[in-house]
Each structure stands twice: as structure tokens, then as C-alpha cells.
Hints:
- Mean pLDDT is 82; it is low at 6-72.
- Strands 4-1-5-10-6-9 form a 6-stranded mixed β-sheet, with helices on both faces. Strands 2-3 form a two-stranded antiparallel ribbon. Strands 7-8 form a two-stranded antiparallel ribbon.
- It is built from 8 helices and 10 strands.
- It is of the alpha/beta class.
- Helix 3 (137-154) crosses helix 8 (290-309) and helix 5 (222-240) packs across helix 8 (290-309).
Amino acid sequence: MRHHESLPPTPRRPLRLAAAAALLCLGLAGCGDGGGTAQAQAGPSGGAATGPAAPASPSPAPTKAAPSPSKSPVKPPAKSPSEPPDGPLSGKTVVIDPGHNPRNHLHTAAINRQVDIGTGHKECDTTGTATNGGYAEAEFTLDVAHRLRDLLRAQGATVLLTYDGDREFGPCVDERARIGNEAHADAVVSVHADGSAVGNRGFHVILPALVRGGGADTSKIVEPSRDLGIRIAGLFVRSTGSSPSNYVGGKTGLDVRKDLGGLNLSTVPKVFIECGNMRDPKDAALLTSPGWRQKAAQGIADGISSYLKG
Length: 310
């Protein structure tokens, strides 16, 4: 929402013994019937032979054929179940930042602590907003983050979340930025939903402004972040059918801000997306729909993928 901090060698196979045994068998004299004693010759009218049968010539000593086993090709080790499959985003790292935390309201002293955002100081985090029916922004953002993670991993990307329901509050906005920086992420997207007035509808993507001061310097990420944001905005429209915001960004779906620590402190390309206005009943109907949330995740994933593929 606008007024809050918008706020993841095989051992060779055993020798093919069956093949080796077949080769050995072929090398033996008389393999199969065996060379026995010669039968007596038949006399006239089928009578007995007139003399003793001649002794059979001894069979030559059997010889063994040297087995020539073929080596099975060595297969590469299988991927660990935790590793993403190979795909068009293999080798790329994406950090997803689900805005807020549903338990922030239980830790007001901690989240109200001031942190340096480069252009000044701001709260560690905020509670976020909610629909009139009580569906919290923090629940929405984590659900979309999970869907987005699965879509990106299916394309081979390594995906990290700044928060995955594993903390009592936060993390603070400066830590959220640091997680993306330390991962050397190729792209970071912070997922949010706005809390504006009824009648204000649509989504918008927030881009970092040029900021230099304190611990902030966005000079290297402004342009790539804009590219990332433009791609997400365009493909979000295509996937969800939602329109760009009618109250922020002049209906371009883009907004530039310098008061967000999550953007100011980032050293890697990063944007925020406000997927809709939770306080408007029509937008809220979309945000609370699992089917629409899947479309939202798909649009964001398509934008990230387009950016990473160049």
C-alpha cells in the first residue's frame, strides 16, 4: 500500500555376465550336445555290427573364449530433490520478498524500531493492510510468493524467499534488501497489495529512484530495475486481465519512489508490485480468489523470465 513500506562414477555396472557366459559357451567344442562315444554301425537288415565298434576319436580339449564385456556408459549423478531442474532459467537466482508478516501486529515494539533506509529512517516493518473481510496482505503475499517460486523453479531458477512463515515478525526492510544482495540475485521482486480508497483499482509496479546517501546507492540498478518492472507490468496485464492502477502512475502501471528501504538499499535489480487494492471490493474479490492469485503469480513469473532471458 502506498503509505506503508511495501511492503524466495557410478560404479560401472556389473559386467554383463549373461553375454560373457554366451561367449564362453560358443568357445566350447560341442557346447550343447557334448561329444559322446560313437554309436555302433548298423549291419545289414538292421542287424548288429559284424565287429566291435571303433573307438571314438577323443574330442579336442575345450578352450575358453576370453570374455569381452562392454562397459555401460557412466551416468551423471542424479540431481538432489532440492535442486531445480534444468531449464531456460538454469544458473539464475531470483529472490522473492513476500511483504509483511501476519504476526507483525503482535510485535509492535520490534517492528516500529527505526532503521536506516539511505534517505532517512523508517520503521523496521509494518503490519500491512487487509480486505474488509479480514484477508491479510501478509497472507496474500506469501501465497503468491509460493506460487511464483514453483513457477520459476520449474524453469530451472534458484529461488529464495526473504521470509517463509518461519519468523515471528519481520524481517526488517533493510534485512530484506540485504538478503537479495548477499544472494547476488539476478532479480528481486517484493510482492504486495495496496490499501487505498474504494474506487481506486488496478496494479502498479514500483521502481527504485536514483538515490545516493547513507548506505544507499541505486545508480547501478535504476535502469535494469526499470526494464524488469516494465516487463512484469506488461505480462501481468496479459496474464490477469487487470488494468494498470487508476490512481498511481498515470495509468502506466509504473511508479518511482525513493522512500522505500527495500529498494534504496538494494544493490541488485529489484521492484515492488502492488497487485491490487485490498480496500476496494472489486479488487478484493480478485485478490481473495486462488485462481486469480495463480494468474498473478504467472504474470510476475513471465515478466521475470522475460527479463532474465534478455
